[in-house]
Every structure is written in structure tokens, then in C-alpha cells.
């Protein structure tokens, strides 16, 4: 057991400390109905990483981070423009197009690399087992700054996501706060995708938020529920990956999926019991 803890200590800390901000931002994403925006931004960030690797940089070089951040910033600008360009085309369709083009671009870039298949797998599922203490500490500090910005500007962000009609009545500049939200989300995604990959970023952002939305209505309670689900799934997924020799990122995603199924089942049972009680 001591050896297992020594091996899994920093991956476990990464999966316990870092998803906190992801759960909070996921609640905004679910409420705004832009479910795939994080997946699109994560894929855009991965596209920047793929280009940096093709240019000869290591995945952990500062140049790779710069390329990924630059691509993500461009993606945030693009998504802001698409959101404010009218409702003739559904925003989810436009977000899906951004994701598909970014994914195709990554495939094309990696096809020119002799280790393209391995690099593609790394962008999807990450290398959380190889995370270093320095990466965890730096990323956690960055996420704390992003969280502080959200706390400081919590009113416009909450109006934007949870009470948009009130925000419009108060003259909230939606385009500005949209851009700031996407930019901060891009910072979080860029940092996390280098550690855990695209799939785990999407899972941490959406699955705990959906579980929380099914079980609670208050934002604070939803945060507590989401963080609890993310924590339990992280511990269960990492333990299962160690005991069964499974890919860690995929195991955590699987644990989150099981949590969502159990939540949906419990919610379904509660709804049925409520209907039976109302009929009586």
C-alpha cells in the first residue's frame, strides 16, 4: 500500500486539487447550454500542442505552452464572436464545427510526425501518471488566480450564466463578459489538457456539473455535490487503474461515467416516488 501511495501520490493530488475550478466552470457551461465549448477549447489547445511538437518542441517546453495558449486565446475570441453573431445558426453547431476542424487539424499535423499515434493518444488521455510536483503546484496556483477573478467578478458572471434576462435589463455587456469567461476557461483548459488530456478535461467540466444539476438547485449545494462526485471518482478511478493496470485518465473518466449513471438512476427513482406520492 505504501508503494502504491508513493506512485500515485502526485497523480491523485492532481485529480483532487485541480478539478475544483473545473466543476465550478462546468456549472456555468451546463446552465448556459454550451456543453461542448470546453471540448472545443480543449481540442484547440491540443492543436497548439501538436503544432509545437511538429516544430520540434517537447511537450513540457515553454514554447509548447505558448503555442497552446495562443491557439486557445484565438478560440476564445472566435467563440465570443460566434455567440454574438446572431441565432440563425445554433451555437452548439458552431462549437461542434470548431471542434471538428481543430481535431482534423491535429490529425493532419501529427500525420507528419514519426510518433504521431502516440502523440495523438497523449493529447486525448494525457499522462497524469507522469505529472510532477512542480506541475501540480504551478497549475493549482494558476487555477487559484482564475478562481479569484471569478469571485471578484462573480455578479456579472452569475448574471451571464444563471440570470441572462436580468443581465440584459441591467445593460450587462455580454460580449465582454463572454470573452473574459472564454479566456479564463481557455487558461484552465490549456493548463489541464497538458496534464490529463482532452477527454478528462471534458469529463471533469461536464459530468460532475450534470450530477449536481440533477440533485440540487442551489449553486452552493451544486458546487458541494459536484466536488464530492469529482473527488470520489478521482479516488476510485486512480485506485482502479493501479489495481487493474488500466490507463489512469480513462479509468477516471469511466468512474465519472458510473457516477453519472448512478445519479441518473437515483434521480429517476426519486421522481417516480414523488409521482406516486402526488397521486395519493
SSE blueprint and pairings:
Elements: H1 2-17, H2 19-32, H3 37-54, H4 62-83, H5 91-110, H6 116-125, H7 133-152, H8 154-162, H9 164-169, H10 174-215, H11 219-244, H12 248-279
Question: Keyphrases for this structure?
Answer:
12 helices; ABC transporter involved in vitamin B12 uptake, BtuC; mainly alpha; 280 residues
Question: How would you briefly describe this protein structure?
Answer:
With 280 residues, the chain is mostly helical. The chain is 84% helix and 0% strand.
Q: What this model shows, in words?
A:
- The protein is mainly alpha-helical and 280 residues long.
- The chain has one domain: Orthogonal Bundle (ABC transporter involved in vitamin B12 uptake, BtuC), CATH 1.10.3470.10.
- The chain contains twelve helices and no strands.
- Helix 3 runs parallel beside helix 5 and helix 4 packs antiparallel against helix 5.
- The longest helix has 42 residues.
- The chain is globular.
- The termini are far apart.
- The model has no long low-confidence stretch (mean pLDDT 81).
Uncertain parts: none
Mean pLDDT: 81
CATH class: Mainly Alpha
Provide the succession of SSEs. Answer: HHHHHHHHHHHH
**Alpha-beta content class:** mainly alpha
The CA-CA distance between the termini, in Å, is 53 Å
Classify the fold: give the CATH topology.
ABC transporter involved in vitamin B12 uptake, BtuC
**Largest beta-sheet details:** none
Tally of separate helices = 12
Amino acid at each position: 500500500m505504501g508503494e502504491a501511495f508513493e506512485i500515485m501520490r502526485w497523480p491523485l493530488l492532481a485529480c483532487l486539487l485541480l478539478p475544483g475550478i473545473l466543476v465550478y466552470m462546468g456549472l456555468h457551461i451546463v446552465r448556459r447550454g454550451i456543453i461542448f465549448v470546453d471540448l472545443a477549447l480543449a481540442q484547440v489547445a491540443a492543436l497548439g500542442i501538436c503544432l509545437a511538437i511538429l516544430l520540434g518542441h517537447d511537450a513540457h517546453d515553454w514554447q509548447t505552452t505558448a503555442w497552446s495558449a495562443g491557439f486557445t486565446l484565438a478560440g476564445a475570441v472566435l467563440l465570443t464572436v460566434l455567440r454574438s453573431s446572431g441565432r440563425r445558426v445554433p451555437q452548439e453547431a458552431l462549437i461542434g464545427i470548431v471542434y471538428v476542424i481543430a481535431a482534423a487539424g491535429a490529425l493532419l499535423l501529427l500525420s507528419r510526425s514519426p510518433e504521431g499515434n502516440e502523440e495523438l493518444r497523449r493529447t486525448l488521455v494525457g499522462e497524469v501518471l507522469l505529472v510532477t510536483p512542480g506541475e501540480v503546484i504551478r497549475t493549482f496556483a494558476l487555477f487559484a488566480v482564475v478562481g479569484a477573478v471569478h469571485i471578484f467578478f462573480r455578479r456579472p458572471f452569475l448574471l451571464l450564466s444563471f440570470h441572462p434576462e436580468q443581465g440584459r435589463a441591467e445593460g450587462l455587456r455580454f460580449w465582454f463578459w463572454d470573452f473574459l469567461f472564454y479566456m479564463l476557461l481557455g487558461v484552465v483548459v490549456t493548463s489541464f489538457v497538458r496534464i490529463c488530456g482532452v477527454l478528462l478535461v471534458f469529463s471533469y467540466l461536464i459530468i460532475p456539473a450534470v450530477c449536481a444539476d440533477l440533485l440540487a438547485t442551489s449553486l452552493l449545494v451544486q458546487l458541494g455535490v459536484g466536488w464530492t462526485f469529482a473527488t470520489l471518482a478521482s479516488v476510485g478511478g486512480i485506485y482502479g487503474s493501479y489495481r487493474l493496470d488500466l490507463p489512469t485518465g480513462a479509468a477516471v473518466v469511466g468512474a465519472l461515467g458510473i457516477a453519472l449513471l448512478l445519479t441518473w438512476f437515483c434521480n429517476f427513482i426519486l421522481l417516480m416516488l414523488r409521482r406516486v406520492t402526488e397521486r395519493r
